[in-house]
Specification:
Order of helices and strands: HHHEHEHEHEHEHHEHE
Strand content: 5-15%
Radius of gyration: 18 Å
Number of strands: 7
Shape: globular
Number of helices: 10
Distance between the termini: 34 Å
Length: 270
């Protein structure tokens, strides 16, 4: 699945080149190039497929900005532990300003972490915080591996699961949330992206084999705020449309139906 992470890096590289970019990710282009996706001509396909690709790319840009802001707010509140679950080609350890004493854990399997490490060495990238990689499959005992790497569950943590839960079946999502909650001291924060209702039907039904959409299996609960309250979190739910407008990138097309709770989630452990 880490090939998907390289495609996400390409989207972030393209956004970084915009004059009015919502974020700058200087390493994204290097990740995309190392993965054979830069430079790259737009894929062929019909108009409907092109529109779906653009929609997915747009959502990646908006969710990146949303989670950047969440991490900055968590840091401002005094949180000094960050855990990126399924970190992929995330370069926040290198591109964001972190307060002194911040420890950032990147949890992913060995293959993407090794690929990423080779690119980081090539680019002579220097992290702006203490960066700790944790090579483990999220289907295994990742909490044990995280603890062995030095994570302290007695102090607040900000957890990020970006573009991850949509690939997990519902029972795996519940287990992941239970494990996060068990290791979150009061004051911990969490940022999640969830597949909105109907997204699998719209994007996955005729997705090309091997594409990201072909591997989507899980959509968000009807009420994610109530769902997370059951895990001990006070959450806010935001729609892509709402956040895009707030960032000066309004979606021009009208909503196709009454907007339900959105898949961009911020939460606090009380």
């Amino acid at each position: 699945m880490w090939a998907t992470a390289v495609r996400v890096a390409r989207v972030r590289a393209l956004e970084s080149e915009r004059e009015n970019a919502l974020f700058r990710d200087p390493l994204a282009r290097a990740f995309a190039a190392a993965g054979g996706l830069w430079p790259s001509s737009p894929p062929t396909g019909d108009e409907a497929a092109r529109r779906r690709r653009l929609a997915v790319s747009f959502s990646i840009v908006i969710r990146t900005k949303f989670l950047d802001d969440l991490l900055q707010q968590a840091s401002a509140s005094g949180v000094r532990q960050v855990v990126l679950l399924g970190a992929g080609m995330d370069s926040r350890a290198f591109r964001m300003d972190w307060p002194e004493g911040t420890r950032l854990f990147e949890v992913d399997t060995a293959a993407p972490l090794d690929f990423k490490g080779s690119v980081l060495r090539q680019e002579r990238a220097v992290a702006r915080c203490e960066r700790i990689t944790v090579a483990v499959d999220l289907r295994e005992d990742w909490p044990g591996a995280l603890a062995a790497a030095g994570h302290d569950p007695t102090v607040p943590t900000v957890w990020i699961a970006e573009g991850l839960l949509i690939y997990l079946p519902e029972d795996a999502v519940e287990l992941l949330l239970a494990r996060i909650s068990a290791r979150s001291a009061p004051g911990s924060r969490m940022g999640l992206t969830l597949g909105s209702r109907g997204v699998i039907e719209r994007f996955g039904a005729d997705a090309e084999p091997g594409s990201a959409a072909s591997m989507w299996v899980s959509e968000m609960p009807d009420d994610p705020v109530v769902w997370l309250a059951g895990h001990g979190w006070e959450a806010d739910s935001h729609t892509l449309r709402e956040r895009a407008a707030a960032y000066g990138r309004p979606i021009s097309t009208p909503p196709q139906h009454e907007e339900r709770p959105g898949g961009l989630i911020s939460a606090i452990r009380r």
